Amino acid sequence: MIYVKDNQFKFYKFKITYDIKQNGLNIGTVDYVDDVDEARDSIYRRPDIYSNFNSEPLIPTPEQTHRLAAINNVNLQYKENYMWDMRLFVEKGVMFNQDPLLKPLADKGLAATINFLVENLKPEIKKLRDIKNNGGIELFGYKFDSNQFARNNVSQYITIAMKDMVIAKDQAKALDAKYIWKDYNDVHRELTFEQICKLADEMGNHMRACFAAEALTAQALSKKSVPELLSFSANKQYNRVGITEQQVTQPGDLAAIYETCYQAALQALREG
After folding, report:
1. Quick one: which of 67, 174, 219, 229 has the fewest CB in 10 Å?
2. For residue 120, which of 144, 101, 145, 94 has the smallest C-alpha distance?
3. What distances in angstroms separate CA 1 from CA 56, 90, 174, 249, one per listed residue?
4. How many other C-beta atoms are found inside a 10 Å radius of the C-beta of residue 222?
5. Closest by Cα among 34, 38, 33, 35 to 17
6. How far apart are CA 76 and CA 199, in angstroms?
7. For the segment 61-114, what is each residue's pLDDT rounded down to a tens digit?
8. pTM here?
């Protein structure tokens, strides 16, 4: 979107899109140029690699224009060294670089930067949710499956047991009946109707707590500082001071945060 000329950041005139053929796939690509004819000719010369060329005038938003003026007011000796940071600041309003010279920009973009880094962590939070949701639950001194298949099965067990009660017209006998259920380690266990119902409740609470913890984790992360958010491995690429990528001495533990949120959510469900 921007480049440096005569020690000033400037907008390119055109936005271009095209596909690059890689491993049998067409990968959509976005770029910015001043000379759209030259870019088009370069694409058309290699139809074996490039295709679907399109161009349009680049029209920055008022916010982007304002941010361009802001970066040109920062006194930097070698502006080219900060191109990656400045491009993201102008395009998205975010500033990850912790160079003291860029603090005015970091202050302006604080909210957007935190939101960006939290959003970048959400796929990792979702993975933790899925692992937890399918990781089993402890009950009656045993561990049981907690995946969708197990939840469907326990619902079927309850339906069958209730049907048996109606047919037998002997609720007490049905309640005392034993039902065979395989635990997480593939060991068959005998469970009563009451235990089957308890298992279903716990599976439901577990699933709900897993999804609640996903939201609670994102909320907890949104309260952290930019340096704290940059300590998580998924945000490593953004952790810079000047032109140097920072080495994290104490990486953020996303799994621990998720587990804390899960336990809080599960307790709230049980108490509610």
Report:
1. 219
2. 94
3. 13, 8, 71, 34
4. 14
5. 33
6. 63
7. 999 999 999 999 998 888 888 999 999 999 999 999 999 999 999 999 999 999
8. 0.85
